[in-house]
Write a structure and sequence with these properties.
CATH class of the largest domain in chain A: Alpha Beta
Strand content of chain B: over 45%
Mean pLDDT of chain A: 89
Structural class of chain A: mainly beta
Radius of gyration of chain B: 19 Å
Mean pLDDT of chain B: 91
Number of strands of chain A: 54
Number of domains of chain A: 6
Number of helices of chain B: 1
Oligomer: heterodimer
Low-confidence stretches of chain B: 1-19
Helix content of chain B: under 10%
Chain lengths: 798, 296
Amino acid sequence: MKKLLLHSSMMVLLAILGVNVASAQQPHVYINPGHGGYDSDDRNMVIYPFHQGDSAGSWESKSNLRKGLALKEILEKKGYKTSISRVNNTTADDLALSTIVALCNQSGADVFYSIHSNATGTSAVNNFPMVFYRGYTGSPQIANADVLAADLEPYLYASQSTVWTHNYQIWGDWSFRPEWGTQGYGVLRGNRAVANLSEGSFHDYIPEAYRLLSFYYCWMEGWNISLGADKYFGRLDQYDLGVVTGNVRDDRIKRLQENPQPFIVYGDDQLMPIHSATVRLLDLDGNEVQRCVTDTLRNGIYVFKYVQPGTYTVEVSEPSHFTQTATVTVTANASTYQNFYLKRVRDTAPVVVDYSPVWSEGDPAVKCSEQVVLAFNWDMDSTTTCGAFKLDPPVEGSFKWEDSYYRLIFTPTDAFDVNTLYTLTLDKSAEHGGGTPMDEDFTMQFYTQPRNHLKELAVFPYEGAPVHFTKPVVELRVDSLLDTYNLFNRLRVLDSEGNELAWNKRSIKYNKRGDDYGYVRIPLTRDIEVGKDYHLILDVDIADTAGIHLPAARDIVFHGVDAGADKPGMEVLEDFESVTGYNCSNNTITASSDRLFGSKSMQVTYDLEYCMDGYWTRISAPGYLESLTHQFAEGDTLGVHVWGDMSYNDLWAVLWADHEGCEKWISLGKINYHGWRYISVPVDYLPEGDFRFAGFEIRSEGAPMCKSGTIRFDNLLRKRGTGSVDELPLANMQVRVAGDYIVVSADTYVQGVELLDIQGRAIKTAGNNCLNVADVPAGVYLVRVHINGRTSTTKVRL
Amino acid sequence: MKRLTMMLLAVGVLLPVMAQDVEVVALKRLLEGVEGPAFYPVLNSSGDRLLFSTEDGALKMHDLADGVTTIVTRDYVAGHDACWGGDGKVYFVTQQTGEDRLVYRAGQCYDPATCRVNQVTDPQHGAVRAVPATRGGALMAPQRGFRSSGDIGSATWTEGSRLHVIVNGEERVFSPVDSWAGYLWASLSPDGKKVAFFAAGKGIVVIDLRGQMLAMLGKYEMPCWYNNDYLVAQNAKDDGHQFTSSQIMLLKADGTWQAELTKPVSMAMQPTCGGGKIVYTTIDGLLYEMKINIYQ
């Protein structure tokens, strides 16, 4: 009511005095183009071809000034009074925040616009306008500052010359920057005018940085702010002229090819802006009303200022593109946006100007993973070109375009077949972007190498593997050196709920040049849980350095176990707390703190020696031939905890009988695992009498996968025989041969079954309780069953 | 003294007992625990009364002698540019937005003796500014202003890039330095013989009453006369959006010497002087009273 009375009394008084109300009540706008100069706080975006610090390049201080000067010019044409804090872009013009506020207050302005552009300051790339006022959002410190912002933002956001990534935002600066308390933006502190700080767009969105180099584009932001002021003061109907503006782009050529540094682009910003395009505004009689030329600063912006309302034709011409026109209607005090997408002039037929692989009879064969690349003299039409692409024999694959449709890349979905002659024909139906087909077919041939997939030599965990829960390690071995770039992202371990377990990337080990095979070995950062299932996923794109990848993805299920769990009925014969007396030829035996029990384990760092039957080494127990303490007899069970190195060597326990005067070897299986594992085997096929534990042997019959390595041993156990070879009475385990299968049943979860020959060599494995033995010759075998980190071995006859 | 030193260290504004020629001998928080954030402090010439603005712009007066704080007006932004007249009254400006969205400002005068506010100019569109004078005060306005009496004594104010000075009833206008953006913060020295003001882009300028430049004191803001030979000013830095540092400086009026009274990290700003005291606020609105000794 108070305001109404005030306003009414003023109006009456002025009317009595015969004063022209519009001119007497001239709104006063204070304009603050933010920043100033070319200094460190003036927001220099380094964009090609400008170097850092080049004043010709992108500076927020420079574009802010252009916007501010445009706003001043436009507002004055519209009858406003203006003040502006600077008209040059020098360091001296970069006034202190308190000074700007005081100047505004002294001027008596009604409203204040501080003009800026924004930056995320992070790798995130956005582009949208924001406006701030002092106070909390919805509670401005100066009345109507929120209204001023709300009146401005739709006009900024209406711009169709840019590409917005999000809707506009309006904030009270205390809400937007809660960490600043009520300090807020400096130009809004103490400002008596109805004040806004406008961030018109994001200058770290690179296409926007190029647009902000355009005088036209900055002028349009000034124009849009003037519309916000008109809306706020109720003056939208008090100006008779409008503007026409927009963006001129190629209709399909991508803009990235022009820039050495790739950057993120959205929407139409992917298309190349057209330089030096002449844009003419023609009236209905074809007379030129205005003309402008797009600059060469990679933005394609044009604008026609102060245009009388009416219908016009906008004509865009540029020598390398076909001329285009559009009809526009200009409205008073409004913006008309008209973007153009010019079609390039392509005046010859398309031809293949380069290709790969280049192969002729007698040349080395081509890798089966090779991409086929065709380069053209024109940007090509994707549909007709891909449709004209034919390989014989046919191969499934995908197409990718590069260099704005100048280069076509065909990648086989899997791999080319081995030892095959392929013929590629690109028939002449392939067209360039202008619709002209090729004059003749293009043909090329290549012959492929005899290898088209990466061969998996070994993996741990393998299917059904029991994995000790602490410090689990994953390893993949293949027949060629792996491409290690980003490799850890192509292997994943998931728990049963699909959650990915993190790698300890600091401890990752890769193959290196000169290795016999390719490998990657990565520990997990955390322990796994006992009793839980896990999945090791190998992506199909795990590839060697030649780009040859796995034949298929793998999903390998393994189980978390505690290899150190109690073994009822087993007695400890040797705890390996001391390694005194143990020896291993020239190899090193030490006590290791990496143990399962007590404080030490026995660690053997070995290098296998060549012998007649292959490679081997012997770890001799102390008191060899003399000790009577470690005795085994037929029907006993021998158990030992082994820390494997995935050497794929065979491990044996050695027993000695005085009265027999000979050694017996008990197979402890292949060392196809990393980390601790409990091995339990029956002691059988022994003559009468006691045999003493005499040590271990590591053997490899052929060329070893790992001739050297490290292995650890902890608690050697024994259970006196009962005539049965079942070491897991609690499990109530049964092994049956049922047709083509060996089926294991127990009162607990069976984690895997291995079929061994009578020498203990693995023949087949399964990650569950069923093993298909249809293809196994008849005979006597051993079946090793894995349950809860323990094993039980029994004989079967097939 | 030990207690004082500890307190100064605690507030983080103490300078090493100062350069060569000035010593901070006392520093204390004002209105601690009894007022919220306070800005734009203005001491009267005797230093016993202090005007300040609350966060929402209301104008208050604090009596340093008896500790009583009085609300002058709750009108928002009234506290931003208030001043003491030589007659002991407070001159300030209130504003309202009309339905045409223009801002209408009115001059006000507060008499501490009667605790009454009188509107002395009608609300009018444009710049209305309170100007202190040695024998009263004035409200400069685009249409009809106000002077507290026919002879307000000496006064000075700025308008654009012009400096107005009234001496003995005679108004003179000077533009001693080029400043495109304009002049600000003009004030007469206590003896009325010099004028200090701020020229945007140039800094603090000291002239005599004939408009002759005496000194350029550097790019500091908000100068106020500590005595006839020294001024106190704000030295604030920013990144274009927010303040990055701010401190209080002591400047010799002849431009031959200057010293820091607080460190840049103190974020101290908006100094005012009177009766040998310096009062300033901080970026978060904490008022401090400082006393110094200057050794010639």
